[in-house]
Structure formats: structure tokens, C-alpha cells
Amino acid sequence: MSAAQGTPGGAAADGQSKAGGKAVGVSIAAAVGGFLFGFDSSVINGAVDALGDHFHLGDFLSGFVVSIALLACAVGAWYAGRLADSWGRRRVMVLGAAMFIISSVGSGLAFSVPDLLVWRVIGGLGIGIASVIAPAYISEVAPASGRGALGSLQQLAITIGQLVVLSSNKGLAGAAGGASQDLWFGLPAWRWMFLVGVIPAAVYGILALLIPESPRYLVLNGRMDEAAKVLERVSGERDGATKARQIKDTLRKEHKSSFADIRGSRLGLHPLVWVGILMAAFQQLVGINAIFYYSTTLWKSVGFSESSSFTTSVITAGINVVMTVVAMLFVDRVGRRVLLSIGSVGMFLALTLTSIAFSQQQGSGDDVTLPSPYGPLALVGANMFVVFFALSWGPIMWIMLAEMFPNRMRAMALAIGTTSNWLFNFVVTFSFEPMTRQVGLSWLYGAFAFFALASFVFVRTKVPETKNVELEDMTGETHQRVARS
Asked: Which domains does the chain have, with CATH numbers?
């Protein structure tokens, strides 16, 4: 009789295998919030030109319609942690789903710029909530040995959301004969691009009601038996009661998260909090969302047809998905810092290549072309950039924000880091279109290349390695081990 069939060790292994499967299942359900994140971040990609024509938007208003949701995301992210501690992770997920449904319907039926901005803000609040809750929940239910891969599900879901919505945008625009053309019930295709978002938002809300509550939230509220069961069933703990008591001990020592927990000697914040803030900033300052928010418009500006521009954007999103899966396979094997370092160097080279290609652009404004061979060179450089971003900074920033802080500061520090990410997302997105006209794409991609190089120095000097470290074992001194890891 094999061990798997009859020995205690086999039974334990089988139990751990089942628990591992449940951890994957609930993590996938939570990560659907990332899908909404990716969906919302790219739905505007195919609609922005049609929106501009329909509402007669200038450069400023066009950029503001795209980016106002990002400011709302920052607000949602800021309050998400405290809401999750008060209401529970699942209820906050449902709130995020409801807000996204309202936003999708409202944006799709918007009749003026002011009400469109209101719906974008509501959707941004929901996405900001989801962007914090999903990685936090996953880190709390995942075993340490697989936390990196499961944490990467958030970024994988984001990339799949981007791929799905770009494919949806292409299909809807193609069926109507253009994003501005009428499709069904007298509504133009760009309105349907928003309305389709109701489907994944509803799925997210339903899944949030079906998954178990986070064991750390249950312990926080004195529900020890329920926490132990979740730890055994989902996280694979052999003795859930003991693990629940360990969590309770850390929570007893650590009062409710507040600003006092994140104070330090450097500019008033703990050094590790600054690491989180800067990681979140670098992820945006390398320019990833200049690719995903404006890729269709960008490729049209250098000579691609609308149809070809949609196709190129879909291909880029597909590359993003594939390389995020590759990152998931390696993050728990080689560690976070190694992948971040490789990604920084690769992004620097790719962005430099793209900057050189755009230095040869002819014309300006909406009348820009790239002579041969610089058009294909720009396309290669942009997609190389996506490859290295998806392999590293895309998923790993979210993993690190969810796991690298001590329990006493995790909720507050995660909220601050995520808020930083959304604020820098806003800065890059809002400034991209006007800066394209003011200084040109070559200088912009050169700036992104500079930040990619700076991110390498930052990783090698400041970012801690958290591979295989239990959440309860994270300490404020983790960053001091960087030089030795």
C-alpha cells in the first residue's frame, strides 16, 4: 500500500494538497478584483478618442476624464484597509463590486461630461478598494511557501482584465465599424465598452459572498474556532488552533494600526514604509500605463489604422498575461529582488530603444509618422518593455506591499503604498498626452528609461527579500537584511 493511500504521512500530504487547492481557489476568487482593476484601466483605451469626439473634449479634459478615476482609486485605496478591519474583507469586496457596477452603467449611459466624471469617480473608488483588499486577503490565506505565486494572481488578473477588455473593445468597434458608430439599441460602440463591465463586477460580488473570511479578521474579532477551520481547510495548517493563537498573540501585542505605527526618524515615516511608497511610485514612473491607457491612440498616431491599433494593443496585453504567468512560476524560487533587478535592467534597455525610435518621428500632434525601420523598432521596444515589466515590477510590487510590513503597520502601510501607486498613476496618465505634444515621445520614453535605471539602484540598496518568510515573522528590521540576502 502506498504512503498516499494508507500512512499518516500520506494522509497529511493529501490534506495539504486539498488545502493548497482551496487556497488557490479562494485566491482566484479574490483576484477577480484585480480583473476589474485591469478592465477599468484599459476600457478607456478604446473609448478615449470616441469620447473626445462625442463630448468635444480638448487635451486637458480628455486627460482628466481618463485620470480622474485614478484619484478616486487613491481615495478608495486609502480607506480600504480600515474598512476591511471594521467590516471584514468579504463585505468590502462586495462594496467594490457594487460600485463598479454602478460606474459601468453610468459611464455607458453618460449624457454629459460632469455626470461621466461622477461615474468614473465611483468606479475609481471601487477599484481602489479592490486593489488593496485582493492582495491583502490572498497574503492572509496563502501558505508562506506559495504566497508569492498566489499573490501574483492579483497582477495576472489585472493583465487578463486588460487583455479581455482590449479584445472586447476591438470586437465591439469592429462590429460597429468604429468606436463612434452605433451598435445595439442605438448606442455607439464606446458606450457598450463600458456597459460590458457589469458582467465581471457581478461575478466578483457573487464570488466574494462564497469565499471564507480572512483568518486574521476572524481572530481580530474573537472568532477563534472559525479562524482555525479556515487555516486548516484553506491555508494548509496542520494545527489551525495553534496558528490562530499565534496570530492572536501578534495582534494582542500590536494595537489597531495608526500613524503612530509607521513613524520613524526619516521625514516622519518608518524606513520600510518609504520603501513601499517608492516601490509603488517606481512601478508607475517607468510608464507602464502610458502603454495601456493610450496604446490605441499611440499606435494610430504613428501610422497604424484604428483596426491595426486595436490589434497591436491586444497583442501587447497578451504578452503581459504570458509573462505574468512566467513570473508566478519563478517568484517563490528565485526570490523577489532577483526578478525586480532583472526587470529594471530589461525595462531600461527596452525603453531606451523605444526612445531612440521616437527620436526619428516626423510631424507633430495628430500627424506623426515613423520612417522605416523606426516604426517596427518602436513596436519591438514597447513590447520588450511589457515583457520585463510583467516578469517583475507588475506582480512583485503588489506581493511586496501585501507581505513585507510587520503586522502592527501592515494595514496602514499597505494603504499608503497603494495610494502612492494610484497617485503616481494619475500623474503619469494625466500628463502623458499633453507632454507628448510639448516635449515629444522620445523625451518621455527617455524619462521612463531613467526611472527604470533608478529602480535598479533602489532594489539593490533598499528592497528586502521576503521569500518564504511567514507574515507573523516580518519585522521592521527586515530591510536591514538586504545587503546580506
From this structure: 20-211+254-484 (1.20.1250.20)
